[in-house]
Each structure stands twice: as C-alpha cells, then as structure tokens.
Amino acid sequence: MTLKDLLSENLGVDDEDVWENERTPTPVRCFAVRLHSMGLSVREVEGVLAWLGVDRCYQAVWNWKEKLAETQSDPPTAEPSRVAVDEKQIEVDGEKKWLYAAIDTDSKLLLEVDVYSRRGTDPAAAFLHRLTEKHDVDETEFLVDAGGYLTALARQELSGQLNYSERNHIEKWFQTVTMRIDRFHSFWRGSQSSARRWLRRFRHYYNRHRSNQALDGRTPAEEVLN
After folding, report:
1. Quick one: pLDDT at residue 63?
2. Domain span including residue 18
3. Half-sphere exposure of residue 72, counting CA atoms within 13 Å on the CB side?
4. HEC-encoded secondary structure of 37-82
5. In the listed set 17, 50, 71, which residue is the last one of a domain according to the structure?
6. pTM assigned to the model
7. Same domain? 97 vs 192
8. Interval 3-30: pLDDT, tens
C-alpha cells in the first residue's frame, strides 16, 4: 500500500463530508487544519488534498481552518511545578509586535501563547493573568529572564525567579517557530487576531500531535493526561 493509499484510507473521505456542519471536526478537516498548523499555506493544503483525491476548493479549506479554530485550540488543564515564560519580537502586517509564550518545563506543554502590541510589565501581567484563568499555577515557580517579570508576577500574586540556565525548552520552542514557520521569518501577512488564531492552532499541533524527544516520543498532552 502506498503512502497516498494509506492516508486516503485513514481519512475516510466520502461525499458526506461536504454536507456536514462546517464546524464538525471530520477526519479530512482535522487533517487539513493540522497541515496548515505545520506551516503549509491554504493553497498548499488544497494541493495535498487534491493529490489524495479530495476535491475541495480553496474557500472550503479556508473556512475549515477558521471555523475549526476553537475546537483545535485549548491545551489540557495543568498544574505545573515550574514554568518558563518569554517573549519574542515579530512583525504583524508590517508592525512590530511581541509574541509571548509559557511552557511547563517538565511536561513541555505549551500552556499559553499570545500576541501583544508592546512588551513590558503590563502585557506580561496580562499574559500571566490568562495563565491563572486556564491552569492551576498557585504553587508554580516561574522562570524568567528579566526583572520586569518579577513585578508582573507580584501583581498576580505568583512566585518566580530570574533563571538563565533552565529555560532551554522555551528558547527551543521559539527556534521551532522561527525555523519551521515561514511567515515568522519576516512578518505575518494578516491581522493580529488572525495571527492569534493561527498560533492557537499551532499550539494544538505542538501539544497534541508533535512527538517530543525529551518525552521519549510522547506528546506534551499525553505526558500531562497520563
């Protein structure tokens, strides 16, 4: 059996997919959204589906990635003991923005990711507040690399320390985004909200579908849930 036959069989594509509610995460739609999260453009995803014998137009693939975004986003709730937080400058539609991310250093779970118009104590505090709404971080120790984060942590009544040696995984995550995702090499072609939606889908892929060498091939979600 060829790779093409294997993929087609596992996707289980049939005409009923056309008539399903567009928010229904059918196998072919999840596959398409996952390809897009891995860095393929909508046109490239359309081409892969055509190669597999799935006749879906550009607009259909676009609708899937937009309407399935919410069902592809949330990571499992975690109670991390140590979390590394950092930010990286990117460009969104030609304007400088800041990409914030937080990773559980044990499970490697990408807990949260967001885009802000500037860096500093206020956006850092807002980002940390989002973490408190989704995860149990009351007893978590945050590993940061700038004093401004300590002020932001104090605002949220969280504890942390300056740490420059145990933050390797979050640095590697930013490298993964930079190296594997073309649109972050220079700038994001779209609005800030579209960048956020794409990052949520990438977070879903990273947590639930990308095996991690440090976890013996398991995904971060599997590490947390098991």
Report:
1. 75
2. 3-71
3. 32
4. HCCCCHHHHHHHHHHCCCCCCHHHHHHHHHHCCHHHCCCCCCCCCE
5. 71
6. 0.70
7. yes
8. 455 555 555 544 444 434 555 667 777 7
